[in-house]
Amino acid sequence: MATFSLFAMGNPLLDIQVTEGEPLLEKYGLKPNDAVLANEQQLAIYDDIVKNWKVTYVAGGAAQNAARAAAYVLPEKSVMYTGCVGEDELADQLRAANAKEGVESAYQVAKGQRTGACAVVITGHHRSLCTTLQAAESFTPSHLSSPEIAPLIQNAKFFYVGGFFLTHGVESALELAKHASNAGKVYTLNLSAPFIPQFFKAQLQQVLPYVDILFGNESEAASYAEANGLPTSSVADIAQAFANLDKANPSRPRLVVITQGAESTIVASSTDQTPKVFAVQKLSAEQIVDTNGAGDMFAGGFLGAYVSGKPLEECVETGHALGAMCVQQVGPTLKFPKVKIF
Question: What Gene Ontology molecular-function terms does this entry list (predicted)?
Fold first, then answer.
């Protein structure tokens, strides 16, 4: 059996993208730069955009995007990804996309269910994500202990979990987290959206002690600060507060990486009380096509470099490079043939 360095877990989704979607934001009560789980009134958006809009289909799901980005900078057969899909053609599209970009799929299959989807409503340089998880919510911890998956977990040295997964899969996220902590491996988590620290605070608090590298953006950091009574004026202060939280494995420092779009990226460490600031090479407005998935591509690029043993500065630069590559194309996609990153 092949040994995969990085084991990623999240909600596999097929992105259904539309542009110039301002009417959809108003119709379904969506915000221009946000990520939500569809409520009962918003569930109609998927049929609506397929029937009435020009759509682009892209393999998505935040952790799956990051896994593909990590695979972009790592050697072949380095990245394994798991999540739950339905027994349908959407799942086949996701498998094909992963295979094309060097990620091995280890899906759990929920028979009789549909693969999850995300409506991606693009307005200018903003994107609004409205997700229906469908089969993704049916992931069970038993999949992790199955004969096919358990050896992959034992052999992996790095783990990545998307914050969206905490809405239903905190037991599985904790199982990986405790394994990583007990074995001295690296466990990484992405906050993923402002509603995670706001509405799934208890689930996040269960996992945070095991997190060695935490990814997020300025909105997610501010949401955490507000939910926990921290000052929200400084992203660097919030990042440092995250870094200083109690840790199950104190022998490994915690890194907290907060992106701010085209602004600087902040990295705080539990061993250094002065967060580092990394400038972003800005693109022109004409170069930016679609910001959907840019944060995931940054996280995957950073993690790919980290798994490769690169220094912090190079990890951030790799994340910036893949994020910039992503926003210049439609959807969370990267250039092929591969561009040499380092």
Answer: adenosine kinase activity; ATP binding
Is residue 19 helix, strand or coil?
A: strand
**Pseudo-torsion of CA 206, 212, 215, 219, nearest 10°?**
50
Among residues 15, 212, 290, 296, which one is catalytic? 296
Say if domain 6-13+61-115+134-328 classifies as CATH 3.30.1490.20: no
In angstroms, rounded to a whole number, what is the distance separating the alpha carbons of residues 18 and 303? 30
276 forms bridges with which residues in the sheet? 267
193-207: per-residue pLDDT in tens?
Answer: 999 999 999 999 999
Distance, in Å, from the CA atom of 108 to the CA atom of 139, rounded to the nearest integer, reads 7
296 part of the active site:
yes
Amino acid 289: pLDDT: 85
Is 101:75 a contact under the CB 8 Å cutoff? no
The domains of the chain are located at 6-13+61-115+134-328
Amino acid at 329: Q
* pLDDT band, residue 1 (cuts 50/70/90): low
Q: What pTM was computed for the model? A: 0.92
Nearest Cα to Cα of residue 169 among 204, 214, 199: 204
Buried b (16+ CB within 10 A) or exposed e, 103-128: bbbbbbebeebbbbbbbbbbbeeebb
DSSP assignments along 47-67, one per residue? HHHHHHS--EEEEE-HHHHHH
From CA 261, how far away is CA 324, in angstroms rounded?
A: 10
